[in-house]
Amino acid sequence: MVRPRLTCLTLFTATLGPSGRRGLLCAVVLAFALVQPAQAQSSRQIHLDIPAQDASSALLQLCLAAGCELAFTPGEGRSIRTRAVRGQMSWRAALAQMLDGTDLRYRFVGSRGVRIWVAAPAAEPTPPEAVEVRGVEVIGRLSEQIDKGLSRKREADSISDMVTSDRIGDLPAANLAEALQRVPGVAIEREVGEGQFVSVRGLGPLFQSVTLNGAPVAFNENIRNSTQSGRQFRFRALSVDLLSGARLTKSSSPDLIDGGIGSNIDIETAGGLDGDPFLSLRLGAEASPRSDKLGADLSMAGRLVSADGSLGLIAGLSEETRTVRYDRFQIMRYGQTVIDGERLVTPNDVRTTVESEARRRRSLFIGADWRPSADVQLDFDALVSTFDNAIREDRLVFGLGAAMAKPGATVLAKNGVVTAASVTDGQIDNNTEFSDQSHLNILVSVGADVVLGDWRLTPRLSASQAYSVLDTPLERFSTGSPEGVAYSFDLGDAARSRRAASLTTDFDLLNPASLTLGQLSIRAVESRDADVTAMFDAERRLDSHRAGVGVTALRWGVQVSDRSRDYDRRDRRAIPLTADAGVAGFFTGATPSDVFSDLLAVRPTPWATADFGRLRPAFRIADPAADIVFQPGDVAPTGTDQQNSYEVGEQVAAAYLRLDFEGQVVARRLSGNFGVRAIETRTHVEGARLERVGDAAQVRSVTFDGDHRAVLPSLNLAVDLNETSILRVAASRSITRPSLADLRAATVPASVLVSAIYEDGEAAVTDPEDGLIFSGVGGNPALTPYVSTNVDVSYEVTGRRTSLSIAYFHKTIDDFIETVAAPEVLTFETHAGPLVEAEVLMSRPHNVGRATIDGVEFGLHQRLAYGLGLWASATWTHSRLDGGGRLTGVSDWAWSLSPYLERGPFSVNLSWSWRSPFRSEADMQGGGVSDFTVGAAGYLDAQAVYQLPGQAELVVAVTNLTDTRELAYEGSRDRLLQLGSVGRQASLGLRWVW
């Protein structure tokens, strides 16, 4: 155990006499620990139990425990009472928590000194200094939370950024992803108007290692369609109400959980002994001009601390409901058609889709800290989070392709691409998709912090599970108009204006009487992910000096993780109970009257929509579980089902050694760490392949076992140039393991191809219908991890009114994984029985070579006069692959501007986030991977807060004030793929804390 030794204590006191003469108290405390070097490390975590009391006594106890230097001048005749400090934290964090809410102000001097004084009365409050706080604050100002995050950034032992709980609450952010996008180097991907995935420094969500309280968590992909996200963490599935913040680390150190070449994002929850007892309540509502439903936003949290401060319990629960509508104008694919003797690039179809989502997020968190002695602290955390999403997509598909070559059709081409046409002999498909997603995430973690002699030991065991299922399977109900329907479209300058010129038809879209049944196809999906991780870390303070540099700490540790995924899928086609029944009775509604008003200058009328309540009793499947609502386990798998399903197991063993050091170099304080992490990853993959043996179908099991080892050295240096600025240099090796979906032993041909061959047999191959695509997607169990060499340099200034950072980063990534298409002969089942073989262009991931990323990021927090301020960030990234090409998900530019005003009880925060175009890949509705570009997009959000009496706040927020429309195109901007619009969203809420 480290025992501080008091080397110098000088205390000058003068008290008020009966005459009320002026008194002065000046205390200077110099405390040095036996552990050298003499300078106290401001980021070192210490156990504290200092009750609320007079400031002089509390500050003295703090500096005796931490080895800091204190200069304190109290006010005239005043006795100031501080807050209690209990728990494990740095001394700077403890000081900030101790003085929070008092009239005391402070300034840090060097690495271990602090000057404290009483604030003088003023018309305008003195802006607070940059400080560090780890506890949960329910009510606070954005500027203060930015400063707290910047202080934690300065005290960190690597290049990192922080977002605190208050900063999330003070920003117009629906979830943690939207709050993180204001951090330098961060960009997000939105899905249906809400932040979903996080990219850092030009690398997509796969390259971010996401942990919860330092432990890995199980998560799985969006199960709506065939696109599988693998290791991408879905931030929108987690409520932010029960989080205390997040730490985003951009340079590696040996003790960090590996896997994040881009960053490590550690999501932090509150602890039972992280602060004083409290109770908070939030009531709110959300609304959208496109929805007639009001969403509820409720949360409650509280902490209890025992009288002796040894036991703390914290718990909270939250529920949020939200309804959104997303309009999409799409062209799914392009082909080539000979029109009047000229071969032109032509769209296969034009689509209008109205997607409606009813989302519900629920979270329950329970935490407990117990400190039975000064040397032992135990903690327990449990988090349960559910995300349910009822999705409905109503769609019209206007067939093009060969219809534009028929007599009577006219076309307009631009740069060899048809951008406008009229057809007289076409067909319109009216289809609807229904599904109910259910996502359940559970995490349980137990840990300890034990001081044993000169060692600090921190074991932790965590277990988590992510379970995703379609409670209502993906039901695709398709009907078609008669052939010979006339319609026209004109894209105009859609890529620039984000609005197409026209889409019109004379066909009565509201009358379903002329529609005929196409099919009702069903896809049931269930995915289970699990992670069990055991970690053990040990730290010992050292005193070893040589050439002006001393080794201050030795750390070592081990990690063992067992990760698994079981992905099960069933595809069925439903059979109508009455063979000759029409479809008109299934249509009971219509799309909204304002549909596509912002995406099409001239648009068709609303159209008739189907009712799932009427479809369900009218259809069945040819299985014992005849109901069309079923789970994968309810029906026996076919050969195709087994080929689409897979299991992946992954075991990770890691050990690390880290040395911390500090000293003086050219009269400047130098600190940092270096070390090495050794890891071994073993994978076991199981799947199936449908093959033809003679005239019979045979399902062949596919198994693969992989083993990969890596040694990852790292170095982090920090030089204090002066009291406010730091220069950091970092170099490291890091890895990201392939997506679990990329490792799958699965083969998934295009769903339209599977359906066509099942119905038409060999004829679908020898004489395919126009537009039928012979493509598919699959995995590759033989993939090896990405391995990156990283160099980072940053300059950080943390001042009273101006704080800024600028950083350069470079990454060379070996064994980079890209999708490669190659022909494969696949076996297909048919309705008639005989098997059919066809050559299919399959897209599978492969380790293809090297990728390089260079970039610069900039961050600024500027306090202005009259309560004004600005928080801004910008990132420039240049990425390239060997042989040419750009990385997917990487924008050249991304920036965020967040001005704010804080005057008295009122505050207003604006946030403008923008990113330039970037390359993307997706499985286009089961038709194989398509490479396309997502256009530039910016979003303006706003939030106003008014502090009411009784520790309450009134909060009003509006997201997407600019009503931003999304754009995607294939290759050139003439080949439009999608325009999307989600509209604005507004919320009103009340927050209380006691």
Brief account:
By secondary structure, the chain is mainly β. It has 10 helices and 53 strands.
What does this 3D model show about the protein?
It is a single chain. By secondary structure, the chain is mainly β. It contains 10 helices and 53 strands. The strands form 9 sheets. The protein has a 22-stranded antiparallel beta barrel. It has a 5-stranded mixed sheet with strand order 1-2-4-7-6, covered by helices on one side. A hairpin with a 3-residue loop joins strand 49 (937-948) and strand 50 (952-959). Helix 1 packs antiparallel against helix 2 (91-99). The protein starts with a strand and ends with a strand. Residues 1-42, 122-140 and 224-228 have low confidence and may be disordered.
Q: Which descriptors would you attach to this protein?
A:
single chain; 994 residues; mainly beta; 22-stranded antiparallel barrel; 5-stranded mixed β-sheet; 10 helices; 58% strand; globular
Number of DSSP E strands: 53
- Which term fits the overall shape? globular
Count of DSSP H/I helices: 10
| Strand-residue proportion | over 45%
Average pLDDT score? 83
- Rg, nearest Å: 31 Å
Distance between the termini: 38 Å
- Contiguous low-pLDDT stretches (5 residues minimum) are 1-42, 122-140, 224-228
- By helix and strand content, what is the structural category? mainly beta
User: Could you give a short account of the major beta sheet?
Assistant: 22 strands, antiparallel, barrel
Helix fraction bin: under 10%
The oligomerization state is single chain
